């Protein structure tokens, strides 16, 4: 293949495994979701229909990482005006997932909705795990035998509220997951994903960089439906470029196809190294842009921000500087991100986008020798030690970079529980001053010596 060539990547691209939690309303799906991902992402309430959208999160068990999706309660003939939308989202989640957790409740037994849902799940080719929730004592374990009638195998008895039985459930999930779906690409090249809201110029940027009309471009939101993967090999750079569908607010996503598109865009972020977050200069920074930025940071991906349509903005002497300061303030605390102002239509600074993304990728892989790191950071700590708490002095004696795919650092402390967030940010800023980690999220851990 010629040096300046692009090639489709679909046969090389694999995604992280996806586990969907489904069931009728009020069986504890969101509680289980929060338990699995380790944080309260989904709202939990006794009111049926609280969850109307799908929530995504990541978890890992015994060293294997996978995505989890929480769905709204499956129901029919209810008074909820969102019933059809919720039911459609549940079906889409089932279709997209690798493993399905069918949640039922021990105290209410088998309901008509459980039977209806079981009929649907028995017809799918996906692996279905029957999970009997709210089993809080041994007597209720005997009651769970009723659920064998659903024809979905042995029920796993858990209490998502207390966590009882979830370890065995996680073992079963791992066993059911397909063999290593997060396989590597053809070779060890950067994976750069272009993300953002609809109509900010993602496909136009891809076409301009590739020099071919690879993707359809129209002013209609949602033109790009799937994530388009291409090998880019020009100007001494070699990486995989991914153009994704625009991610709108959940309330504005109405079509089935767009549900798929947003899900695949999220999974493209999960499987990328660096994300190029595109903004529209005319519309400014919107809440959905912040949501996408938070998704990038939560997944510990490198980030480059591109403000497109810069040619349409009326400029003064300090317009670019003011924009930069505004964006850094809004993106705090993680605001050490390269910001590039472009006009894709005029091909203004588009090559700089790629050069910056590759530099962020290299920074994300940066490894600092332990001796070099301690020679720099220990004098900084000695000059500005952690403030004492409850009359106790906090001493950091040693630090090192952990052998992880992304920059993570461990500090060994006599009293790690007393290290506060402001001091953690102080150390992070000092590390960033010394080494170029621009655009790369960083984790600092404090451990007992």
From TrEMBL:
Any one Pfam family match given in the protein's UniProt record, by short name: MMR_HSR1
Lineage top rank: taxon: Bacteria
PROSITE patterns: G_ENGA
Binding site for GTP 2: 196-203, 243-247, 308-311
Protein keywords: GTP-binding, Nucleotide-binding, Repeat, Ribosome biogenesis
GO biological process: ribosome biogenesis
Record InterPro entries: G_ENGA, GTP-bd, GTPase_Der, KH_dom-like, KH_dom-like_a/b, P-loop_NTPase, Small_GTP-bd
Assembly and interaction partners: Associates with the 50S ribosomal subunit.
Full protein name: GTPase Der
Source organism per UniProt: Alistipes communis
Lineage summary: Bacteria, Pseudomonadati, Bacteroidota, Bacteroidia, Bacteroidales
């Amino acid at each position: 293949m010629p040096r300046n060539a692009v090639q489709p990547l679909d046969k090389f691209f694999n995604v992280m495994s996806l586990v969907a939690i489904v069931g009728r309303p009020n069986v504890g799906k969101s509680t289980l979701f929060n338990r699995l991902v380790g944080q309260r992402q989904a709202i939990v309430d006794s009111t049926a229909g609280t969850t109307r959208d799908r929530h995504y999160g990541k978890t890992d068990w015994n060293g294997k990482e996978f995505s989890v999706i929480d769905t709204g309660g499956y129901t029919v003939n209810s008074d909820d005006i969102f019933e059809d939308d919720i039911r459609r989202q549940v079906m889409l989640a089932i279709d997209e997932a690798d493993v399905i957790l069918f949640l039922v409740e021990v105290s209410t037994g088998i309901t008509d909705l459980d039977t209806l849902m079981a009929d649907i799940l028995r017809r799918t080719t996906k692996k279905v795990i029957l999970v009997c929730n709210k089993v809080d004592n041994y007597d209720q374990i005997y009651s769970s035998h009723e659920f064998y009638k659903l024809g979905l195998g042995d029920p796993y008895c858990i209490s998502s509220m207390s966590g009882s039985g979830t370890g065995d459930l996680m073992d079963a999930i791992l066993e059911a997951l397909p063999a290593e779906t997060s396989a590597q690409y053809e070779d060890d090249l950067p994976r750069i994903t272009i993300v953002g809201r609809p109509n900010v110029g993602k496909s136009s940027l891809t076409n301009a960089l590739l020099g071919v009309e690879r993707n359809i471009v129209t002013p209609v939101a949602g033109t790009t439906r799937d994530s388009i993967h291409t090998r880019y090999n020009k100007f001494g750079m070699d990486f995989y470029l991914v153009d994704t569908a625009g991610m709108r607010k959940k309330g504005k996503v109405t079509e089935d196809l767009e549900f798929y598109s947003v899900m695949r865009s999220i999974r493209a972020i999960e499987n990328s190294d660096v994300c190029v977050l595109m903004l529209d200069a005319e519309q400014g920074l919107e809440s959905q842009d912040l949501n996408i930025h938070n998704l990038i940071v939560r997944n510990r991906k490198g980030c480059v921000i591109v403000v497109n349509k810069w040619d349409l903005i009326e400029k003064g002497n300090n317009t670019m500087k003011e924009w930069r300061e505004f964006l850094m303030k809004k993106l705090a605390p993680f605001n050490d991100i390269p910001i590039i102002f472009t006009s894709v239509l005029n091909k203004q600074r588009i090559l700089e986008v790629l050069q910056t993304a590759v530099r962020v990728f290299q920074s994300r892989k940066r490894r600092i020798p332990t001796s070099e790191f301690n020679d720099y950071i220990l004098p900084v700590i000695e000059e500005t030690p952690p403030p004492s708490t409850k009359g106790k002095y906090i001493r950091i004696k040693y630090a090192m970079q952990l052998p992880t795919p992304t920059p993570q650092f461990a500090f060994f402390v006599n009293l790690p529980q007393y290290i506060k967030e402001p001091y953690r940010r102080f150390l992070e800023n000092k590390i960033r001053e010394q080494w170029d980690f621009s655009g790369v999220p960083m984790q600092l851990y404090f451990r007992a010596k």
